[in-house]
Amino acid sequence: MKIDPDSTVDLSAQIAKAIRDAIIAGDLIVDQRLPSEAELADHFDVSRPTVREALKRLAAQSLIRTQRGATGGAFVNRLRFEDAYAQQVTTSILLLSMNAVSFDVACEARYALERACAPLSAERRTPDQLATMRAEIHRQGQPGLTDEAFCASDVTFHRALVDGAGNKVLSYQLAGAVEAMQPLMNMITFTARSREEIVALHTDIADAVEAQDAPTVDAKLIELEAYTRKLAHSVVTARAKRAAEKEHKTA
Amino acid sequence: MKIDPDSTVDLSAQIAKAIRDAIIAGDLIVDQRLPSEAELADHFDVSRPTVREALKRLAAQSLIRTQRGATGGAFVNRLRFEDAYAQQVTTSILLLSMNAVSFDVACEARYALERACAPLSAERRTPDQLATMRAEIHRQGQPGLTDEAFCASDVTFHRALVDGAGNKVLSYQLAGAVEAMQPLMNMITFTARSREEIVALHTDIADAVEAQDAPTVDAKLIELEAYTRKLAHSVVTARAKRAAEKEHKTA
DNA sequence: GCCAGATTAAATGTCAGACAATAAAATGTA
DNA sequence: TACATTTTATTGTCTGACATTTAATCTGGC
Question: Which among A5, A89, A165, B113 counts the fewest CB atoms within 10 Å?
Answer without folding.
Answer: A5
